[in-house]
Each structure stands twice: as C-alpha cells, then as structure tokens.
Design brief:
Two copies of one chain form a homodimer. With 343 residues, chain A is α/β, with parallel strands linked by helices. Chain A is built from eleven helices and 19 strands. Strand 19 of chain A pairs parallel with strand 17 of chain B.
C-alpha cells in the first residue's frame, strides 16, 4: 500500500473553550490535554513514516504563524478566506497526485488511542484505494445530540469497513438514544480517507461550481517556499459547504471504518475534563490551585492561584483578564458569553 | 448628658474574607459594603457632634497607616502588640477623664440602621453614667452558633435597658435555636458603653494584674502628635483576655440595651452577601462580571472580568494573584485555606 498523506485542517475558533481559546490563539494551538497542543498531537499521530507521507496543512492566514511554529517545515496551503471543508479538502487534493490517498484530519480533536487510529487509518486507506469515500465511524458512547451520525450499511468484503446506509444530521435526544441502543450508528467525527482523484471527481459531479472555482484559485495561486497561496478572488467566490453536505451525502461510494479510539472533539469544557486524567475525586488541575471538598472540578489557571471549596461538576478557567466559572450544563453556553463573542 | 467618646478598636485579621482581606490590608479598611470602608463607616456612625466627642482609635502598628489615611487627624493609641480587648479598652480608659462615657466599637462590623445605633448608644450612655457596664444586645434573627449571647434579666427602670442575667459562650445549634425561640436572648456584638472610671475600677477588681500592667504601659508611654505609644515591654507582659471574659462576666453591674439596627459582623463571604444590596435574582457584583442563570451569587473582582453560568449560592472573589470560588457552606472554611493561612 502506498503511503497516506495526512491533510490537516486548521480552522474554527473554539469559542466554547473561551477564555482559554481566543481568536488570537484558538483551540488547536493550545495544550489542552497533556503537554502537546491538539494540532501537534494531530501531526504526531500521522508521523510514522512507515504509514504516512509528509502532511499537508490547510489553514487561514490568521493561524499561519501558529502552524509554522508548532510544525516546523510543514507544507501549508494558506486559505485567503474561510470557505468550509469541501473547498479546503479540494485545495489539498489539487496539490496531490490523483492516485495519492489523503487522510483528512481536523486538528482540534483528541484521540486517546493512537494505535487504534493508525489501524483505522490503514483500513480506510485500503478502501479509499478502491475509490470508496471513507468516513471514520467513531464508536458512539453516549446519546450525543451535537454530532452527525453514520448509519452502518452492508459490510464491504474483507475490508473491515461498511457502506454508509445514511448520513444523519444532529438528532434530537430521543433519536440519539435510539441510535445508541441500536448499535448501528456511529458518530461522524470529520475524519475522511479519499483517493485525491476520486474526491475531485465526486466533487465535480455533485458541486461542479466549487470544483471549478477551487481549480481557478489554484491556477491563480502562487507558492512561497513551503506555503501555497490560492488566488484570493477566485477562492472568495466559492460557496461555503461542508464536505459532508457537498460530497459525502451525495456519493454512491460512501463507506465507513469503525474507530474505537478514545475520540473527543473537546467540544466544551466538560468534554475537556472528560478527556483529561483526573484524581480520585474526579478533579483535574492545570496551574496553581487548592481544592477542598470538591468533586469533578476542573481548574485551569494561567497565573493566579485558584482556591475552590465545596463545589461539584464545576469548571473554573482563568486566562489573563477573563475568568470563567460554570456548571457542566453551562459549558454549552460559554460561546454566547459577551467575552467569547466580543474578543 | 455629656458627650459620648467613641473608642474604635481596629484589630483582627479577617482571614475568612480572604483573599480580599489580607494581612497587609485587612477587613476594617476595605469598602466591603458600599463605597466606604467598615472603619470609615464606624467613625461616621459616631460623628454627630450633638451626641459624640472626637473618637479615640486603638490599633496596632501594622494598621496605623490605614487608620490615619482613612480618618485624618484621629487620636490613635498604637498598641505595641496585640493583647485582646480588655487591655485595649483599658488603654483608652486611661486616656480619658474618669467621668467620660466611652462607647467601645469594633471597626469591622456593618450596621445598616445608623439612627437605631444612635438611639441605642444614647440609652447605653445614660446607663453607663449610672455606672452600669452596658453591652449592646443585638436582636437575634437566626440561631447563630458563632456568637456569644446575652440572657436578658430584669428591666432597669425608665432606662430602656435590662440587667444581663447571664453571658453565654457560643452555643451549639440546639441551644441557639432554644435561645432564638425564647425571645430572651440577644447576640453579644462587642459594642459596650462604660464610664471610664467605672470600667477601670471593675477591671482592677477582677483583673488587677491587667489593670496594673496597662497603667505601667501608659506611664512608660509617650505621645507623638496625635499618636500615643504605650510602653512596649509593660504592654507585652499583659495577659490576652477579652473584655467579656475579664470584666463583663464578672461584674455585678452588667446591663444591656436592645439594639435592632441591621447589624452584621460580616463574618464570612456569605454574611457579606447578605449585607449587600442584591438584584432580583439575589446576585451582587463588585467589578466586571457577566452572570447567566445564577442565583444568590456574589462576584467581587479587582480587575479581570468574571463570567459565571448556572451557579447558585456561590461566592467568587478575585484579588490580585488569588481567586476564591466557594459554596455558601464553604465560606466557613476560607480562613483555613493555604492562601489565607500563609499570606
């Protein structure tokens, strides 16, 4: 099998992890779990030269300095504007040989089990080589309403993978509980494997305007060392669509590989606490803190000492001139706070 | 009636209001309720020249700068060391004429109803002029276990006051509930009125060693402008005892005047929240904050913005390099935190 080219997407703002995640230094570039940043961990997961080729990073100008600081020498496609994942992946596909297998990885997720990830990546790559468009089907462990789901279809012989019977948008709780109970549904974690040429031909079938505009932006673009800058005008004219909506839900060749790898999108502070090692009381601390009579408390401080007494299921985050104190349920609302909205 | 001389005691550390109250700037000198500090409010309560003479402040060297900054021109007795209230009051009594009526006021309490305070002060002064040693009996509004109680005895004719049948040390909850239900008990708030000579003669009867040592410290002391410095060696030899224990529980002339004046000792953060104006959700904020879905939350910040989501009955205090987050029940433990203990 030829090597897999990681395509690492660095977009998004991570406002639900405010005030740690800020516009100027968002979620992928922070050491949220352990000592490495989510972006560094994403690159490290795809760094075994026996399996992976050098990565290709797709990011915006506002994140370029972080990318280059955290992954020296990386090949980077610098998006002149944000046009969602269909266009971002197409930019990468056009930099590759049509026969290359690309593994699209968001850079703001946590994966606890790197070996399971590698096994799933290899299985996905084998299917992609047969021109399947492959999603990682993340083993669902809770009736999450914030994720899309993949309904598993028939097995694809000798591959370990399955056809996707159906893509399901974010369900309500009742449906999410049905999905979980049935065992037939997996979370759509936004990790994909494609043959570059196969992806582009599906995009041309289902979204010819996007495909044409991305080709134009590449034709009008220019390289600058390890950076490639697509033409801003052509790229800016592209319709923003997710790869799920533009391609995956339309193709007849959608497949999935099961992936049980301790995945989390670290979608809010509660999810981050769940991804971190905790002490016997369920508490986890980054920075200086004293906890008395606390359970399931996350404290993260960039300086001041935080003393907490008697609280359960609470998050305390100190970042410069902003302090957040929230219940677990409240973590869903963090992105709507004045501080998060007006950075 | 001759004028009353306020004797304002400035001691104590207020560690249960840490991290706002610090060794270097403790509770009396902070604007905890409204814009004036507790010390300033204490002085202002006793400032009507129709009723009060100029105050006499008793404090330690570590608080002297705060006293002089917040009450310009004050006569100050500077204790060379802390020897509790019996000695502090004796120092003041020896600076006065034996016929002077002194009103002893702690400087770290909050009194919402200044007029009620003045009425009680006048009633207490009238009794003191007849050589009663008078405690303010604070109307008990809850079965507090952190206060001493006064058991009301027989009425003293035409005075509005009562003999004290008994002083009771801090009771357990069951007894405190009995006290509250009986209606015969009041809190001992540490506010006293004495004729200076009567106090000294009672002190000499019941604690002759303290009385003699204070006289010696005064004889060996020296004035420095508006400051008086007792002799350090003699004062340091004094036994630390409260005025309650040394004098009030022993004298046959203990009286009390009822005082229903919105009193609070601001003994912890929960008590402070109760003393402050709150909004319709019971929240109170000093500094920059955004509260979402909160009830009975106090936020106090000296700088950073504090965003709180979904919490009830919680206190959040930001002071420089220390941040406290506690439940109401936890406020009792604040003084034992590492930060409060090792300032």
């Amino acid at each position: 099998m030829s090597k897999i080219t990681p395509v690492i997407l660095c977009g998004g703002s991570g406002t639900r992890l405010w005030p740690r995640s800020r516009v100027a230094k968002p979620k992928p570039f922070l050491p949220l779990v352990g000592d490495t940043t989510l972006f560094e961990a994403t690159a490290a997961r795809c760094s075994d030269p026996a399996t992976f080729a050098a990565p290709l990073v797709v990011t915006g100008t506002q994140h370029l300095a972080h990318v280059e600081a955290q992954l020296a020498g990386a090949q980077v496609i610098v998006e002149p504007s944000a046009r969602n994942t269909a266009a971002a992946i197409a930019l990468a596909a056009l930099q590759l040989d049509p026969q290359d297998i690309m593994l699209v990885c968001p850079s703001d997720h946590h994966i606890a089990d790197g070996d399971a990830f590698t096994r799933a990546a290899r299985a996905a790559a084998a299917l992609a080589a047969d021109d399947w468009l492959v999603s990682f089907g993340i083993e669902a462990t809770a009736p999450e309403t914030g994720f899309g789901y993949l309904h598993r279809g028939e097995a694809i012989a000798a591959s370990g993978g399955f056809k996707v019977a159906r893509f399901v948008e974010k369900p309500d709780l009742a449906r999410a509980e049905q999905f979980l109970a049935s065992g037939e549904y997996a979370w759509n974690g936004g990790i994909f494997a494609f043959r570059a040429g196969a992806f582009l031909s599906e995009l041309e079938s289902h979204r010819p305007a996007i495909a044409a505009a991305v080709r134009k932006a590449v034709a009008e673009g220019h390289a600058d060392g390890a950076r490639f800058h697509p033409g801003a005008e052509a790229f800016g004219a592209i319709q923003s669509e997710s790869v799920d909506y533009a391609v995956m839900e339309n193709t007849a060749r959608a497949a999935m590989v099961p992936a049980d790898m301790g995945w989390s999108d670290i979608g809010n502070w509660q999810a981050l606490r769940d991804a971190r090692p905790v002490d016997s009381d369920g508490n986890t601390v980054v920075g200086r803190a004293e906890l008395v009579g606390c359970r399931n408390v996350l404290v993260e401080s960039d300086g001041p000492r935080v003393s907490v007494i008697g609280l359960e299921n609470v998050i305390v985050v100190v970042d410069g001139d902003e302090i957040l104190v929230t219940t677990d349920a409240g973590t869903q609302l963090v992105g709507k706070l004045s501080g998060a909205a007006n950075q």
